[in-house]
Amino acid sequence: MATYRKIAADLRARIESGELAPGAQVPTQQQLSETYGVARMTARQALAELVNEGLVRSQQGKGAVVRGRRHMVYRPQAEFQPRLSREMDRFMTALIQEGREPSQSIDVAIETANVLVAARLGIEPGSRVVVRKRVRFIDGEPFNINDTYYSYDLAHDTEIMDPSDIPRGSNNVLADKGYREVRAIDEFYIRMPEQEEIRRLGLAPGTPVACHYVTGYTADDKPARCDVFVLPGDRHVILYERTHPEDADAMSQVDD
Amino acid sequence: MATYRKIAADLRARIESGELAPGAQVPTQQQLSETYGVARMTARQALAELVNEGLVRSQQGKGAVVRGRRHMVYRPQAEFQPRLSREMDRFMTALIQEGREPSQSIDVAIETANVLVAARLGIEPGSRVVVRKRVRFIDGEPFNINDTYYSYDLAHDTEIMDPSDIPRGSNNVLADKGYREVRAIDEFYIRMPEQEEIRRLGLAPGTPVACHYVTGYTADDKPARCDVFVLPGDRHVILYERTHPEDADAMSQVDD
DNA sequence: AAGTGGTCTAGACCACGCC
DNA sequence: GCGTGGTCTAGACCACTTA
Predict the structure, then answer these.
(1) In a shared domain, residues A38 and A95
(2) Which chain A residues touch B18 with a CB distance below 8 Å?
(3) How many Å apart are CA A108 and CA A160, to the nearest integer?
(4) Which residue range is the domain that position A20 belongs to?
(5) Overall number of domains in chain B
């Protein structure tokens, strides 16, 4: 095995064992090159591997430190569905960070739909869409991206165009236009962030994201809206709760 | 901006524009160093950035090529819930790859629970648990990991210990023991893979994973099982479908 | 000023794939 | 054999942080 891989494995083991806890200073490139008798570039390559794994954060001038995680609850069902059980409370209290200040920036624009959004809204790519672009912050730190797309015809003459909160809720605006949402499909793609996402969210190297599309439908299967969320992996845990249908034991079995 | 970052940005733009489509050969390190008048190590660093973003796959002896994606549908609800709408069919047919051969390896072991599993099963860390470790394959390619944990007391004298398929379904085995699962909580963590996951799944650099915990509960909120799925981002799209409660418009509104 | 990581060089040798 | 990427070196200079 390559030398730098061995050095990286040593450091990784020290992190996983807890010897190097989150926040702890990792040996400097100088120290590693002396300890292992290698060039600094080789020690550097070992650290680069850990950075790309998201285990370590490296800063010019300061050293490298072990990264920690603080997962906030992201619950897609929250908009339409109350908690179902005590167990959910257990998770919420265990995971939610207390005493933090949420805020958001809202930006409304008229754009042309890209292929991904067009496919979900059931319109032609290049059609006009209204998009509410939001970045949510916790204690001033960017937390996630939430861009909501509507077909222009549906939204252009409503409060959706207003770049501030919609007091009665955007779902009720759509309902009044005859697009009451009764069903939604959630899609999650896991990938490394794009450059613009790194910028908007201030992401550290080695931080993957979940890209979450929510397409809302009316009772007659017409798409009403398409949400695009970008959720950094070092800040979110995504939570769903579901009840099994009454006849589950009779009609199905786990694929096992 | 650093030279290698400029080179990387150029290549990234050529990939995003479609000039370099998935499967296309990326310029060699030699070519880049001549084109930009830099040392090969500098060209190499540019390519390394794209590799870590998951955009490019690099192989010794052969060059580097643009990576593509083939997303298979991963639908956590499938076990217990049939499709709800036509729209789901649209997604399924659009996303499912046809004519592929699924297979799996199963391995049953008795282990001690780590803190993550213990917390979810409501037992002490270090308690004995039964774990069914599976790797699922599509056309012989590893696809995802699915390890299912049961408390030892619940599972040790059942077919769950049998390292092959359970014809009647593991959920029915648990139901017969008085642990009929009626509810589940799904948690997703997005992160870079661990070394063991890279090995078991044959992951390329720059491939993040979703780690999916499913905890199943009985009607009186006792945990019955805990599933741990590891889903590589370059192979999965995670799909949920949900209906909004009847009284949604009356009682709630979108946080907007 | 000293110490840290970030960038870049010029060159060497090795491992792998292909012809 | 030849071209590819992978590893490693020794040294240089720059940018940033801290004292």
Answers:
(1) no
(2) none
(3) 8
(4) 3-66
(5) 2
Q: What is the pLDDT of residues B48-93, one digit of tens each?
A: 999 999 999 999 999 999 999 888 888 888 776 665 565 555 555 5
pLDDT digits (tens, 9 = 90+) for A40-67: 999 999 999 999 999 999 999 999 999 9
Residues 6+ positions from A20 with CB-CB distance below 8 Å: A11, A14, A26, A66
Q: Would you say the C-alpha torsion A149, A155, A159, A161 has a positive or negative sign?
A: positive
For nucleotide D16, the protein residue with its alpha carbon nearest to C1' is: A61
pLDDT band, very low/low/confident/very high, at A158 (cuts 50, 70, 90)? very high
Do residues A143 and A21 share a domain?
no
A13 and A108 fall within a common domain = no
The SS3 assignment for B74 reads: strand
Same domain, A39 and A99: no
Rounded Cα distance, B130 and B112, in Å: 9
**Based on the number of CB atoms within 10 Å of its own CB, is A103 exposed (0-12), middle (13-18) or buried (19 or more)?**
exposed
Q: Looking at beta carbons, which residues of chain B come within 8 Å of A248?
A: 80-81, 171
Per-residue model confidence as pLDDT tens digits over A108-144: 999 999 999 999 999 999 999 999 999 988 878 898 9
pTM given for the model: 0.91
What is the Rg, in whole angstroms, of the alpha carbon atoms belonging to chain B? 23
Scan residues 7-46 of A and list those with Cβ closer than 8 Å to B: 9, 12
Å separating the CA of residue B4 from the C1' of nucleotide C7: 9
Angle among Cα A49, A54, A57 to the nearest 5 degrees reads: 85
Residue nearest to nucleotide D7 (CA to C1'): A2
For A3 and D7, how far is CA from C1' in angstroms? 8
Give the span between the Cα atoms of B118 and A151, in whole angstroms: 47
